[in-house]
Amino acid sequence: MVPRPADFEPWLNRLPGFEDARVGSITAVDGGASNVTCRVELLSGTVRRVCLRLQRERGIFEPYDVIREGRVIAALAATDVPVPRLLGMEPSADPLGAPFIVLEWVDAPHMGLAPDADFDAFTRMVARIHAVDWQAAGLAFLGVPASVPEALERDLAAVEARMPGFGCAGEPLLEDALSRLRATVPAEGRLALCQGDINVFNYLFRGGEVVRVVDWEQARISDPRVDVGQLLALSHLKGAPFGPAERMPFAVRYRAAAGADPGDLRWFRAMWLWQLAVIHYGWRRYGNGSTPWYSLEQASELLLMALAELD
């Protein structure tokens, strides 16, 4: 899906400041399950590199909408959440075969590679995202649920809609888990901007601080505990012992960074373990030959433990 320089260059030349730019090469970079990310090397001009994000057709977070992601990034530019500068958007698939956005290229490693990465700085940034005045920022286009239960039901429905395409619709554990999650949706909470994927790979570091937050295709208005639950679930899959959710290191740090108790986290941990089990199926189908770094058996065992807490 990597476009040819000759196809991208005429479009780039229409952007202010890039009228005389010459594209030397376009190279795909590892973007995980996100929209397809490419590094574009330029042969002329003061800017010598930009980021090209093309809309992915199939994947674990489908359906993809790169223009929606671009609108989120544009809206966040006026907030204190550091995001890449949006240079342009193309909603038509005609130029390159898929819609795309163009962003500044940020020379900073993600948290998994940065030698000066700081877990507290990462946690503070997650809390900062959740503190964004999303209405003032113009993010209501993401869809505003009438209540927290409605937001969480939407989140469940989005994952459920992927299951047939992933080949796991009808799997007893996943179906039972979905029924249990729907029966125990939290009635209380608050609505906030959620990134939807606070994987550490989406946080770029320099000087011990987060300098950019990337990958906003899953952004939505929901309960911020959805994001917190993801880190808890991932921590268990990476070996953290299963125990009280509120005592896990990220939960403790998040509480301090947010300046308030987020509330009961058990449902959100269970929801993400269910989602990660679903993702395992999708990854095997659309992972371009790669295999998930965690096993389905591991995710299933943890999911059963998390569901037992909801009784």
UniProtKB/TrEMBL annotation:
Gene3D superfamilies membership: 3.90.1200.10, Phosphorylase Kinase, domain 1 (3.30.200.20)
One term of GO molecular function: kinase activity
Domain Aminoglycoside phosphotransferase: 26-268
UniProt entry keywords in alphabetical sequence: Kinase, Transferase
Alphabetical list of InterPro entries matching this protein: ACAD10_11_N, AGP_Transferase, Aminoglycoside_PTrfase, Kinase-like_dom_sf
CDD domains linked to this entry: ACAD10_11_N-like
Name of the protein in question: Aminoglycoside phosphotransferase (APT) family kinase protein
Organism: Tepidiforma thermophila (strain KCTC 52669 / CGMCC 1.13589 / G233)
